[in-house]
């Protein structure tokens, strides 16, 4: 009987030891995963998917959800920048200025639009329509690099551009308006907010998740006709069938901005370049999408960018831009160019041969 009990105890011990070994191995795998993910950055890596597995039960990575739950581990997002918590905004006049700056970014038209309470100087869009979530969203044209990289040389104007100069560029192009007095309360507030957002970014550093995530070039031209189908399926519910956007009940600002027509950005805006529009829409649209959970494919993003930018919009005189045409962006849709490709080719692509031609011209 004693030998039998001893045998049972031995078997129990083996089972317990096996389970413990399995858990230790499982924990080791997760730790290795964290280490590897800290070394390599990719918007679509398995480890980014693991980070949000609890919020995404339908993950396409079999078994990862169970692994995350067993180990009770949340893999950190592989970002280089995260907006500071608003609780860290200082008190007093400095804090009030930063908060006013954020308000101006989120509700620009309320203060500076056609029915603005301060000035009437823009088209009714808000800065936040492009700089998503008050300029804090990853790959949503956030402001993380403003303080660290400005002033900077801009080839388009062939000059050193300050933060205020860059803001006024947006007012003139994206908001199809006029410049704002650089000494005004509003300008100083917007600059203060942007500097506060980037306060922890070292000088000269551009965080990985700033700006937008540029997409690989297509091996064909972006197609406005295909893009129209993408727009009808994914964009009409917010932006309207004629791209007119949705005005708030106040009639003062847009809930969803106009994508073309007299109230939209003009043809000098950054989003009029479809490499920018495609990268932006891929990781931010339809509304609520982020770079970790895109809905549109790369092809759909290129094509809808082509469709939107094939529609009529205000024109801006750009005759004084690009003193050195060799520095023009390849998708800038207005000549002259250093190569022999047409404006249409520069606007819609394909771009590979343009890149090659411009390299050979230097």
Structure explained in plain terms:
The protein has a two-stranded antiparallel sheet with strand order 1-2. The longest helix is centred in the N-terminal third of the chain and has 38 residues, at 2-39. The protein is built from 15 helices and four strands. The protein is mainly alpha-helical and 362 residues long. The protein folds into three domains: 2-71, no CATH class; 86-197, Cytochrome Bc1 Complex, Chain D, domain 2 (Orthogonal Bundle); 224-319 and 328-361, Cytochrome Bc1 Complex, Chain D, domain 2, CATH 1.10.760.10.
CATH class of the largest domain: Mainly Alpha
| Low-pLDDT sequence parts | 1-8, 10-16, 35-77
**Range of helix content:** 40-55%
Strand content: under 5%
Q: Please name the CATH architecture of the largest domain.
A: Orthogonal Bundle
- Major β-sheet, in short? 2 strands, antiparallel
Extended strand count = 4
| Cα-based radius of gyration, to the nearest Å | 25 Å
Tell me, briefly, the overall form.
Answer: globular
Give the domain tally: 3
Mean pLDDT: 85
Indicate the CATH topology of the largest domain.
Answer: Cytochrome Bc1 Complex, Chain D, domain 2
How far from one another are the termini?
Answer: 92 Å
Please give the count of helices: 15
Strand order, main sheet: write it out: 1-2
Order of helices and strands: HHHHHHHEEHHHHEEHHHH
Task: Describe the structure using short key phrases.
Cytochrome Bc1 Complex, Chain D, domain 2, single chain, two-stranded antiparallel sheet, 362 residues
């Amino acid at each position: 009987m004693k030998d039998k009990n001893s045998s049972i105890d031995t078997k129990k011990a083996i089972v317990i030891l096996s389970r413990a070994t399995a858990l230790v191995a499982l924990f080791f795998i997760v730790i290795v995963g964290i280490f590897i993910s800290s070394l390599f950055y990719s918007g679509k890596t398995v480890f980014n998917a693991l980070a949000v597995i609890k919020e995404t039960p339908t993950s396409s990575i079999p078994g990862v959800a169970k692994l995350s739950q067993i180990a009770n581990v949340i893999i950190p997002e592989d970002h280089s920048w995260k907006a500071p918590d608003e609780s860290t905004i200082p008190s007093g006049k400095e804090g009030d200025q930063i908060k006013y700056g954020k308000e101006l970014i989120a509700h620009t038209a309320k203060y500076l639009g056609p029915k603005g309470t301060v000035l009437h100087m823009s088209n009714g869009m808000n800065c936040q329509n492009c700089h998503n979530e008050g300029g804090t969203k990853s790959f949503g044209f956030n402001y993380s690099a403003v303080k660290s990289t400005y002033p900077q040389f801009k080839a388009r104007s062939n000059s050193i551009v300050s933060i205020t100069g860059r803001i006024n560029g947006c007012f003139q192009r994206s908001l199809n308006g006029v410049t704002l007095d650089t000494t005004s309360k509003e300008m100083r507030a917007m600059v203060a907010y942007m500097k506060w957002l980037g306060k922890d970014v070292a000088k000269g550093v551009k965080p990985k998740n700033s700006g937008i995530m540029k997409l690989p070039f297509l091996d064909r031209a972006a197609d406005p006709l295909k893009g129209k189908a993408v727009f009808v399926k994914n964009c009409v519910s917010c932006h309207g069938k004629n791209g007119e956007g949705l005005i708030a009940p106040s009639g003062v600002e847009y809930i969803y901005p106009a994508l073309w027509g007299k109230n939209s950005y003009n043809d000098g805006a950054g989003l009029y370049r479809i490499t920018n529009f495609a990268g932006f829409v891929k990781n931010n649209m339809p509304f609520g999408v982020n770079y970790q959970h895109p809905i549109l494919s790369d092809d759909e993003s290129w094509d809808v960018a082509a469709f939107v930018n094939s529609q009529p919009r205000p024109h801006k005189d750009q005759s004084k831009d690009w003193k050195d045409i060799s520095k023009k962006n390849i998708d800038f849709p207005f000549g002259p160019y250093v190569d022999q490709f047409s404006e249409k080719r520069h606007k819609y692509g394909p771009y590979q041969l343009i890149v090659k031609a411009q390299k050979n011209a230097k």
